[in-house]
Amino acid sequence: MDIVINLLVSVMAASTPLLLAATGELVVEKVAVLNLGVEGMMLMGAIAGFAVAHETGSLPLALLAAIFAGMALSLLFAFLTLTLQANQTATGLALTIFGRGFSALVGAGYVGISAPTLPHIHIPVLSDIPVLGQILFSYDPLIYLALALLAFVAWFLSKTHAGLIMRAIGDQHDAAHVLGYKVIRIRYLAVLFGGAMAGLAGAYMSLAYTPLWAQDMIAGRGWVALALVTFAAWRPFWLLIGAWLFGAMMYLSLYVQGLGVPVPSAFLSAVPYIGTVVVLVLISRDSRRIRLHRPAMLGRAFQAGN
Questions:
Q1: Interval 31-52: pLDDT, tens
Q2: Which of 136, 224, 239, 274 has the fewest CB atoms lying closer than 10 Å?
Q3: d(CA 114, CA 280)
Q4: How wide is the angle at C-alpha 239 spanned by C-alphas 238 and 241, nearest 5°?
Q5: For a pLDDT cut of 90, what percent of the chain falls above it?
Q6: What local confidence, expressed as pLDDT, does residue 286 receive?
Q7: Of 120, 141, 9, 11, residue with least CA distance to 63
Q8: CA nearest 16: which of 208, 237, 252?
Q9: Residues 6 or more apart from 163 whose CB is under 8 A from it?
Q10: What is the pLDDT confidence band of residue 130, given thresholds at 50, 70 and 90?
């Protein structure tokens, strides 16, 4: 039973940065913007959160710094792609390269240094329940926040008028513009939200999951988060299932390495990413499912004069 409990708790922790980043990217893609810079924004959030936590000792300030770092990079992306009409795919890739290099530069002085870490919450009575208390009520605040934000996004997109407008922009931005909706402004807001979530996901990596700073510590999770949105067919519930699935794959690859199984560690480290590719290939075979849920204007630029 202890092994099962530890497995479930570890999977929740491993899936949280994926869930945070993918939830933000889901909102971005719902308004038909494709931001491939998630990895770079997560790295910027990771170093900003870690550096502020180390310098000030304040975790709330560290999380705010991570959010603003992610938003700053996403604002640059929005300006280039929405205002200057740069290619979204190329700009997103450039953003990831920039985030990787700049975070390594800023973080050079923080390698091997400790910082405050996010504490686990103890809820009186509930946390003391045998088995269930450890499985449901023994996490740090960001795990609960990730679940709450996903639930909020699901409700917002499906049940509110603003969510309907966002989906309309994603499916037909010209028609939404004719109806008087500010397409570019709404896309700016969505991209900023995605940047905030990616920055928060990065902070979780450096302040909770692996409480330290190391160059390239995100290790491809930004790309997995992008793949999760496609895996989920742009639906929040399946985003949660996908995050748990890939989180389990990441944890189990580390767990098997710890057992000393005679398999090359490089192969075990690659297993989650191989699984990502396999899942995406299988999903791409179902073109009907993709067409049904994919925002029709995804990745296509909008010009108000057209």
A1: 999 999 999 999 999 999 999 9
A2: 274
A3: 38
A4: 60
A5: 55
A6: 66
A7: 141
A8: 208
A9: 156, 157
A10: confident
pTM: 0.91
Q: Centre a 10 Å sphere on the Cβ of residue 104 and count the other Cβ atoms it contains.
A: 15
Task: Lowest mean pLDDT of 117-131, 169-183, 187-201, name the range.
Answer: 117-131
CB 57 within 8 A of CB 227: no
* Residues in contact with 168: Cβ distance below 8 Å, sequence separation at least 6, in sequence order: 175, 176, 179, 181
Number of other residues whose CB lies within 10 A of the CB of residue 270: 14
The pair phi, psi for residue 59, each rounded to 5°, is: -70, -40
Which range of 6-15, 193-202, 218-227, 296-305 scores highest in mean pLDDT? It is 193-202
Give me the mean pLDDT over the 185-208 stretch: 95
Which residue shows structure tokens 């959010």?
Answer: 67
Report residue 2 as tokens.
Answer: 């202890």
Which structural domains are found in the chain, ordered by start? 2-293 (1.10.3470.10)
Contact partners, residue 34, CB within 8 Å, separation at least 6:
28, 88, 89, 92, 298, 299
- The whole-angstrom distance between residue 280's C-alpha and the CA centroid of its chain comes to 17
The alpha helices in 108-220, defined as continuous H runs, are 132-136, 141-159, 161-171, 173-178, 183-204
**Residue 116, SS3 per DSSP:** coil
